[in-house]
Write a structure and sequence with these properties.
The complex is a heterodimer of chains A (119) and B (108). By secondary structure, chain A is mainly beta. Chain A contains no helices and 11 strands. In chain A, the strands form 2 sheets. In chain A, strands 2, 4, 5, 6, 9, 10 and 11 form a 7-stranded mixed β-sheet that branches. A 4-stranded antiparallel β-sheet of chain A has the order 1-3-8-7, with no helix packed on it. Chain B has 108 residues and is mostly beta strands. Chain B contains no helices and 11 strands. In chain B, the strands form 2 sheets. In chain B, strands 2, 4, 5, 6, 9, 10 and 11 form a 7-stranded mixed β-sheet that branches. In chain B, strands 1-3-8-7 form a 4-stranded antiparallel β-sheet, with no helix packed on it. Chain B is globular and about 35 Å long. In chain B, 35% of the residues are buried. Classes of the chains: A mainly beta (119), B mainly beta (108).
């Protein structure tokens, strides 16, 4: 059974960079057919898709965040990561890492990690 | 971007009864729609994809229907573990994928 687990600071100061890592167990991220993605949920609001990284390293980001967002992967550790620069309070959210089948829904999710942006 | 609207926001149902949840898309998404179950503090779980196909391990009491802009998730006989939040997602028009706001199913 595949499992995903987010990790990173729970508190980030405004204007700094939010960095999260997703550790995948029970399967390799270094195979095609799946898109390793990040999704966030603002308090009391719906979900927002942030972007994906493919095993080849290709990425696609939500246009609304494209200028601030970078994703990377580390196959040796079976991890992928997210960096979001110049954060504000509007970036306070629960961040989920997921495996997206890109055509048949998202079949694995991490439990999510709350990141608060505050001084 | 496609806007997904779920209704109602909260659904009060007695255990053993049927629950019917709705999801509407602002434009057609064909059958490229998924439903997820989310228990607070846990990872969301895929329950339906392709608008009507149950994901692996999902009980038969869960069923999905619809196409185009109108979709329904039906839980035929609610069990105690079903009283959580459900949300829909379209994966027809990208970027980005978009999600509904969620429906909370609570015990009546």
């Amino acid at each position: 059974q595949m499992q995903l687990q987010e990790s990173g600071p729970g508190l980030v100061k405004p204007s700094q960079t939010l960095s999260l890592t997703c550790t995948v167990s029970g399967g390799s991220i270094n195979r095609g057919g799946y898109y390793w993605s990040w999704i966030r949920q603002h308090p009391g609001r719906g979900l927002e898709w942030l972007g994906y990284i493919y095993y080849s390293g290709s990425t696609y980001y939500n246009p609304s965040l494209k200028s601030r967002l970078t994703m990377s992967l580390d196959p040796s550790k079976n991890q992928f990561s997210l960096n979001l620069t110049s954060v504000t309070a509007a970036d306070t959210a629960v961040y989920f890492c997921v495996r997206d089948r890109f055509g048949d829904g998202i079949d694995y999710w991490g439990p999510g990690t709350l990141v608060s942006v505050s001084s | 971007e496609i806007v997904m609207t779920q209704s109602p926001a909260t659904l009060s149902v007695s255990p053993g009864e049927r629950a019917t949840l709705s999801c509407r898309a602002s434009q057609s998404v064909g059958t490229n729609l998924a439903w997820y179950q989310h228990k607070p503090g846990q990872a969301p779980r895929l329950i339906i994809y392709g608008a009507s196909t149950r994901a692996t391990g999902i009980p038969a009491r869960f069923s999905g229907s619809g196409s185009g802009t109108e979709f329904t998730l039906t839980i035929s006989s609610l069990q105690s573990e079903d009283f959580v939040v459900y949300f829909c997602q379209q994966y027809d028009n990208w970027p980005p994928w978009t999600f509904g706001q969620g429906t909370k199913v609570e015990i009546k």
